């Protein structure tokens, strides 16, 4: 959440090629494009993803039972956290852990939070098998698109996989918000793409402090080209946004380039939208794009996850000092959680033109993450950037419970 890339709503990586790419988006399965970095070329697949995994994947696709059992046998997302002494899949020496997530190195002393396993009620969740994942994904291109929480999960995934094949970055922007990796032995590409609203936007760099006068803008009818231009080159797409919509700054909402409403906007003579309605509109735009696109990658929408600030919010001294998870039913989130989750459930459930989207899966972490108030950076989120009394109760320590999000992702893709 902290910081932003500045006033531009996106930074074209290779402007002339991006322009070409924009022309091609959605054009045809038979079109594909290249882009270059110093040392690497991505060439998209001309074929529909037809590997076994993708085929099996579509048989468990999201439909009217969204959030309910993803397999006949087992609902992965209903269960509890149980103690388990086994160690995380990697340790603090993983070079891909951002400073702000390296809690143990930043001084966290309690370590029980590393020793819980998610136990779905009706089955067991095996840890992500890095070797199997890499073999299955050979030659594939993944993208993780969204805000710093999907970045957090992507870093976890890369750390897990790096035990088998060290991920090497071949492009990153200055702040490492967008960064591209290769797993060289398996010819796998993992793109981490910064797009905190999924749609075209302009937003302030300033931290969202109380009394901010910053004014942000989003265009709820225009997908952010920083990812949309690459869509046709992707085999697997993991998307998650949400928290940036709930920042306290004034938000102007644009359609057809005109401001048609706003929120957090007292004193503006404009139609006032609800945050969750705007989120819903963005999800709808995204789902319609996925449904209408001729290119059919496997798309995973990763759910909203709760913040766990107590005694205040992130900007008013809130803390998350718990060292054990909640038990099922002990904590149920706050009003904003239900609103944003409600928007997700309803939009994802309604699919595209009244039909389920065969290539879309819902990684429904909400109930899993809700219980892990103990897994955040809290006061160990950074030795440098830490401001007085500011804890991080949104992002997750690495290693930490967020590694389980990837175990679930693997299971969701692999399960029959
Ligand atoms: C959703 O999936 C379930 C279980 O696979 C199936 O019984 C049901 O008919 C599906 N619903 C729709 C609308 O496709
Ligand atoms: C702990 O977790 C590991 C990995 O999931 C599993 O193999 C093992 O059986 C678990 N141990 C216990 C005591 O449940
Ligand atoms: C790597 O994967 C791409 C598809 O993403 C493929 O076009 C290329 O031939 C592969 N390279 C090698 C060396 O196998
Ligand atoms: C608010 O906008 C409406 C419609 O554009 C206009 O009629 C009205 O005068 C405006 N009110 C103020 C206080 O500017």
From TrEMBL:
Residues 125-411 form the Trichome birefringence-like C-terminal domain. It is found in: Golgi apparatus membrane. It comes from the Eukaryota. It holds the Pfam family PMR5N. One of its GO terms (cellular component) is Golgi membrane. Signal peptide: none annotated. One of its GO terms (molecular function) is xylan O-acetyltransferase activity. It is a single-pass type II membrane protein. The keyword Transmembrane helix applies. Keywords: Golgi apparatus, Membrane, Signal-anchor, Transmembrane, Transmembrane helix. Residues 72-124 form the Trichome birefringence-like N-terminal domain. The chain crosses the membrane at residues 12-35. The keyword Membrane applies. Belongs to the PC-esterase family. TBL subfamily. PANTHER family: PROTEIN TRICHOME BIREFRINGENCE-LIKE 25, PROTEIN TRICHOME BIREFRINGENCE-LIKE 9-RELATED. This is Trichome birefringence-like N-terminal domain-containing protein. The lineage of its organism: Eukaryota, Viridiplantae, Streptophyta, Embryophyta, Tracheophyta.
């Amino acid at each position: 959440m902290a910081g932003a890339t500045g006033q531009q709503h996106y930074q074209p990586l290779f402007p002339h090629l991006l322009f070409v790419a924009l022309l091609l988006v959605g054009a045809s399965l038979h079109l594909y494009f290249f882009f270059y970095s110093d040392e690497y070329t991505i060439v998209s697949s001309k074929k529909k993803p037809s590997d076994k995994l993708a085929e099996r994947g579509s048989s468990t696709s999201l439909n009217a039972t969204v959030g309910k059992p993803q397999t006949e046998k087992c609902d992965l997302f209903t269960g509890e956290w149980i103690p388990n002494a086994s160690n995380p899949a990697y340790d603090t020496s993983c070079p891909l852990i951002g400073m702000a997530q390296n809690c143990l190195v930043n001084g966290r002393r309690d370590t029980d939070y590393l020793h819980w396993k998610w136990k779905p009620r009706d089955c067991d969740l095996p840890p992500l098998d890095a070797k199997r994942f890499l073999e299955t994904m050979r030659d594939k291109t993944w993208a993780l698109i969204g805000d710093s929480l999907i970045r957090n999960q992507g870093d976890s995934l890369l750390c897990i996989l790096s035990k088998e094949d060290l991920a090497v970055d071949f492009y990153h922007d200055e702040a490492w918000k967008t960064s591209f990796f290769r797993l060289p032995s398996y010819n796998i590409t993992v793109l981490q793409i910064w797009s905190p609203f999924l749609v075209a936007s302009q937003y302030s760099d300033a931290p969202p402090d109380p009394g901010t006068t910053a004014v942000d803008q989003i265009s709820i009818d225009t997908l952010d080209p920083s990812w949309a231009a690459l869509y046709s080159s992707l085999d697997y797409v993991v998307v998650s946004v949400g928290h940036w919509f709930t920042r306290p700054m004034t938000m102007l909402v644009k359609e057809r380039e005109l401001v048609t409403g706003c929120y957090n906007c007292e004193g503006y003579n404009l139609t006032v939208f609800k945050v969750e309605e705007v989120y819903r509109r963005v999800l709808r735009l995204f789902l319609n794009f996925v449904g209408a696109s001729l290119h059919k990658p496997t798309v995973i929408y990763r759910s909203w996850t709760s913040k766990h600030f107590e005694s205040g919010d992130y900007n008013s001294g809130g803390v998350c000092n718990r060292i054990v998870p909640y038990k099922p039913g002990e904590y149920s989130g706050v009003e904003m959680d239900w609103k944003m989750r409600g928007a997700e459930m309803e939009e994802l459930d309604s699919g595209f033109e009244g039909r389920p989207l065969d290539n879309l899966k819902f990684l429904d972490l909400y109930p899993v993450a809700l219980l892990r108030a103990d897994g955040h950076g809290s006061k160990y989120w950074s030795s440098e950037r830490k401001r007085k009394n500011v804890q991080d109760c949104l992002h997750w320590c690495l290693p930490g419970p967020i590694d389980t999000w990837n175990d679930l992702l693997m299971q969701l893709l692999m399960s029959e």
